Amino acid sequence: TKATETRAFEADVSRLLHMMVHSVYSDKDVFLRELISNAADACEKLRFEAVSRPELLGDDPKPRISISADADNKQITVEDNGIGMSRDDMAEALGTIARSGTRAFIERVGTGTEDTQLIGQFGVGFYSAFMVADRVDVISRLAGSDEAWRWSSDGKGSYEIAPAPLEAAPRRGTRVVLHLMDDAVSYTGSYRLEQLAKSQSGHVPVPITLVEKPGAEARDIADGTALWVRPKSEIKPEEYTDFYRSVAGQYDEPAATIHFRAEGRQEYSVLAFVPGSRPFDLFDQDRKGRMKLYVRRVFITDDADLLPRYLRFVRGLVDSADLPLNVSREMIQESPLLASIRKGLTNRVLGDLAKLAENEGEAYAKIWENFGVVLKEGLYEDYERREQLLKLARFHSTTSGEAWRGLADYVAAMKDGQKAIFFMAGDDRARLEASPQLEGFKARGIEVLLLTDPVDSFWVTMAPDFDGKPFKSVTQGVAELSDIPLLDDAKKPDAAATPEVDRFLAFVKSALGDAVSDVKASDRLTESAVCLVAPEHGPDRQFERLMNAAGR
Ligand code: ADP
Ligand code: MG
């Protein structure tokens, strides 16, 4: 097992690398951020391991990341003294696609090269090195191991793993050497490297040094102070943005920043962001959150359910002062302390969103646009906070045009005699608006919410009410419109209970037989002769359709 071995990349990796190399994506800068973020992750993993095995730190307890440039040899090196990788780790981590984001990227882009813009949006981790390098060497020594290994590839289909002499390897951790392509040699300029590292990764919780050229002295370019422990008033918006990008793997601006420190019975800091656009993994099957858990600045896991699923778009971290460091990740999950952090954090996020909705309607509307569908899952998953979530919910309606409408505004605009919040659910807004079922409502100037997300049918059938007003489908039961006056210019519906009408209804009922459960005169229509409605109790028409489509 000590010999050199050449292995083929997993098929998906080959495709990805091909895309990278032929990428038209202009922002190749991101490679540095990805390498630094891996180096920082490795340092944090080591810190975590060292809690139970302090000997791993040896005489080199301080985490560090060092970047060095060598223009003459067209090389950039990023080295860390973190956890390192074993031979198997290397084959697994660098030869296969480990990240769901990378896989999602490949699925979206397929084999073409036209859409590689998306690289920026996905952030494809380690492999982004091949945007600037035509050969990458990774020399690594796992903490506590007496072997070192060298992984090497030109990014064209295969890689090689061979034992590395210990004297040519880091004493612990990983060295990534990029052999730059000709058009990327300018990255070795010290000013450029420093600017890049500072702006993209200045707030990773590990200090970074730069060696400008071989023989030069290492210079500190980032001190590793965790941004979240600094007072809010001292932090510039750009610093938040940089941090957001590195913690969320996003490349845009955050839509909202949530930074606070909880004190009292529980002490923890939170730095979290609502992304400016939808992260690629928002609709992953497992609907997992992506909040990281730290304990006294030591990274513990990104797998603790720190927020309910309907807030999974929020990215960032919680740093607890109270959780024990030396418990397993599984135990942390069960901890009552965690449950209480989760509760406090959830309330805070919803509270901040509510404030934003109140004070900065436009910014909030954008958040709703991106994440409303996800937030609405909370309407049926989080009974306790349903009222709060209903207040945050925004809708389109028959009278809203392109604007978003909140329920408080809907209720304030209800007509005299109107007892319910009316909605119509379907797939397509234009089709809904053309529906005859709305005629009687339009004729009375009654606003009807148009619910076009599949998730709408779920929460709305759980029959919540808002401000004491029940939600009622316009396609269901009697419309109860007769108490509400028609607008002056509206056509009068003609549903009077005359003997002719009764005879006609009886005739239609017998003609349709079992196909319908009832035939009624209705003040729902003003133009059309007839429409289908669902019974008063039970699912509305759209919910029935969804259930049928799901084969239930
Ligand atoms: P991600 O960081 O999201 O896991 P990457 O593609 O950036 O994805 O890295 C893939 C994996 O390679 C990492 O999960 C890690 O296991 C391994 N790796 C990369 N760089 C290092 C490093 N400097 N030290 C230790 N392991 C690393
Ligand atoms: Mg990474």
UniProtKB/TrEMBL annotation:
Molecular chaperone. Has ATPase activity. Pfam families: HATPase_c_3 (PF13589), HSP90 (PF00183). CDD domains: HATPase_Hsp90-like. It is found in: Cytoplasm. This is Chaperone protein HtpG. Belongs to the heat shock protein 90 family. Residues 1-329 are annotated as: A. Coiled coil: none annotated. The lineage of its organism: Bacteria, Pseudomonadati, Pseudomonadota, Alphaproteobacteria, Hyphomicrobiales. Residues 27-184 form the Histidine kinase/HSP90-like ATPase domain. Homodimer. HAMAP family: HSP90. PROSITE patterns: HSP90 (PS00298). Keywords: ATP-binding, Chaperone, Cytoplasm, Nucleotide-binding, Stress response. Its main location: cytoplasm. It comes from the Bacteria. It comes from Mesorhizobium huakuii. Residues 330-545 are annotated as: B.
